UniProtKB/TrEMBL annotation, chain A:
Name of the protein in question: Transcription factor IBH1-like
Subcellular location: Nucleus
Keyword terms, alphabetized: Nucleus, Transcription, Transcription regulation
IBH1-like N-terminal domain location: 23-71
Major subcellular site: nucleus
Gene symbol of the encoding locus: LOC120262116
Keyword Transcription: yes
Pfam entry (one): IBH1_N
From TrEMBL, chain B:
Coiled-coil regions listed: none
Annotated spans, Disordered: 29-64, 150-230, 402-421
Keyword set, alphabetical order: DNA-binding, Nucleus, Transcription, Transcription regulation
Ranges of compositional bias, category Polar residues: 155-194
Organism: Dioscorea cayennensis subsp. rotundata
Cellular component aspect of the GO annotation: nucleus
Record carries keyword Transcription regulation: yes
Gene for this chain: LOC120267433
Domain BHLH: 223-272
Descriptive protein name: BHLH transcription factor RHL1-like
UniProt KW Ligase keyword: no
A Pfam short name: HLH
One GO-annotated biological process of the protein: root hair cell development
Length: 153, 421
């Protein structure tokens, strides 16, 4: 019953679950082959986490800003290219959102969602929705894998 | 003489409009919301407005009327922020203005210029607009009054502050003076402020500050020429609909407040990212066995109800494993549990949580189990506390490891339970 629910349920059509699984498992096997025993536990968990995000971005396709940011960060881990909004537009938008609370929320959200600094608030919300969808799908996938592994122990 | 003053008024008005863009708009918009209670107040203006209806209306095309309406509304709202105090006096003056305007229109009826057409279109508007006509006529009256103020202000002040000051003080004198000129104002700006009405009226719905005692028309009319107000309105609508879409995604969707909803969204994103991190840590042991899993994944997908019994078995296995580990070393036991996405908690807490989840809806669970690792959609196993809410509701199965506690560690004197949320 776990397995069914893990793999089958997908109320919203957007996250393509088999594609997610394919990419993630591919990444895992690659990790398993390359960095087997040389890396420490912490390093390996970091690598796996990174692989999770990258496979998530792959499965999500190229239409989303956050996928761009994730893949870009993957390729150039130290290079942070800030595509900030242009000055006039940004000041206009910031003048509109005079509410300090929403501005704080927006800033927090921008820091959470990858690539959030380069977007306006409305598109940021859209990106967040998509990001949450894929995050939940990824988490479910990883839980399924963990469970399956435990059953074979 | 008349053309000169008209041009002057036109220039003044244009200046006014140009100046009235950004900061001014905020003040304006904050003061806009609505004088809806005042809609019912003046009966007499409405009676007076009945008189203009007698004029021949059919000569003028409707779009001229609406353009004039837009211009009136714009000037009305430009000066709208200033004068909440002097409204009763203003209303009476508005009556005079309406009468005066009517006279001017009658004088200008024969003109074929757009001025006359625009002005002539103003009065017959109550006739043509039907249901909305009543509020429109009041708006016209207000606008006519405001036009006076707006006309008078440019000579006196350049900034927004000046407009407010000018409006509140001594408007009575200016009314008489500007009454002669007020009807010229509509003409120069019909095309410009044609669209100013809808965004302004649309903005009245979005702001909720102190209301000036005027009537406002909320109906949208045609396009808006002012880009900032359009953009702002569109932006707010987009944000609202996207917040609604997000609300469906995030589990705790019962918040109506935008700020708390945003808080919830942020917390949920953090929680999901934390889950990914923890699950990637647990994947360490399993990374070695991933390859055989690839084949198994596809085979497991087709399997039917085997998961239920398998689930209970796995939990029992887990239980024994944890018990064994706890005898040796608490740290390894915790690590083992953590790898599985489980946690250790006192039985009292577990029973409290399970009883709470049995009673309440599943929305309670994600918040209470935020610090517990996995959020799995499980079939009810063990204690059987499954709400049965559907595929998306997490349920809890609680196992007790009381048997292991006899030989257990010092820190866990109380009975502990292994709970898999």
């Amino acid at each position: 019953m776990h397995n069914n629910k893990c793999l089958k349920e997908n109320p919203n059509p957007n996250p393509n679950q088999p594609l997610l699984a394919y990419h993630f498992i591919q990444a895992l096997t690659r990790i398993n082959l390359t960095a087997h025993t040389t890396t420490s536990t912490k390093q390996r968990s970091h690598i796996i986490k990174h692989a999770a995000y990258v496979s998530m971005a792959f499965a999500a396709g190229n239409k989303r800003t956050w996928t761009h940011a994730v893949l870009l960060h993957n390729r150039f881990p130290l290079k942070t290219r800030f595509h900030r909004l242009s000055g006039s537009r940004r000041s206009f938008i910031m003048s509109l959102s005079r509410n300090k609370k929403t501005h704080r929320h927006a800033h927090l959200l921008r820091s959470l969602v990858p690539g959030g600094h380069a977007m306006e608030f409305s598109s940021l919300l859209m990106e967040t929705a998509n990001y949450i969808q894929y995050l939940t799908a990824q988490v479910r996938l990883m839980q399924c894998i963990v469970e399956k592994f435990d059953m074979h122990v | 003489m008349q053309p000169c003053s008209r041009e002057m008024q036109a220039m003044a008005l244009q200046e006014l409009q140009i100046a009235a863009h950004d900061d001014f708009f905020d003040q304006m918009l904050s003061s806009l919301p609505p004088s809806w209670p005042d809609l019912g107040n003046p009966k007499s203006p409405w009676d007076l407005a009945g008189k203009p209806q007698d004029d021949p209306a059919g000569e003028y095309p409707p779009y001229d009327e609406s353009s004039l309406l837009a211009s009136r509304l714009r000037q009305h709202q430009i000066s709208g922020g200033g004068g909440s105090g002097g409204s009763p006096a203003e209303k009476s003056m508005g009556l005079h203005l309406a009468q005066h305007q009517q006279m001017m229109l009658a004088a200008g009826m024969g003109r074929s210029s757009p001025v006359g057409a625009g002005d002539g279109g103003l009065i017959p508007m109550p006739l043509s607009l039907g249901n909305g006509g009543s509020s429109d006529s009041r708006l016209l009256l207000d606008r006519s009054r405001d036009e006076v103020d707006a006309a008078f202000k440019p000579p006196n002040s350049t900034g927004s502050e000046g407009i407010y000051n000018g409006f509140s003080s001594g408007s009575a004198q200016r009314m008489a003076q500007a009454a002669n000129q007020q009807h010229f104002q509509g003409s120069p700006v019909p095309s410009q402020s044609f669209g100013a009405a809808p965004p302004s009226s649309g903005n009245t719905t979005t702001q909720a500050a102190a209301a000036p005692p005027r009537q406002r028309v909320r109906a949208r009319r045609g396009q808006a020429t002012d880009p900032h107000s359009i953009a702002e309105r569109l932006r707010r609508e987009r944000i609202a609909e996207r917040m609604k879409a997000l609300q469906e995604l995030v589990p705790n969707a019962n918040k109506t407040d935008k700020a708390s909803m945003l808080d919830e969204i942020i917390d949920y994103v953090k929680f999901l990212q934390l889950q990914v991190k923890v699950l990637s840590m647990s994947r360490l042991g399993g990374a070695a066995a991933v390859a055989p899993l690839v084949a198994d994944v596809s085979s497991e997908a087709g399997r039917g109800g085997g998961g239920g019994s398998g689930g209970s078995d796995s939990l029992a296995v887990t239980e024994h494993q944890v018990a064994k580990l706890m005898e040796e070393d608490m740290g390894s036991a915790m690590q083992y549990l953590q790898g599985k996405g489980l946690c250790l908690m006192p039985i009292s807490l577990a029973s409290a949580i399970s009883s709470a989840t049995a009673r309440t809806t599943s929305s309670l669970i994600p918040s209470s189990l935020n610090h517990i690792n996995s959020n799995n959609n499980n079939g009810g196993v063990g204690a059987g506390i499954n709400g049965g809410d559907g595929p998306s509701s997490p349920s809890m199965s609680v196992l007790t490891v009381q048997s292991a506690m006899g030989a257990g560690s010092d820190t866990m004197k109380d009975a502990a339970s292994v709970s898999k949320p």
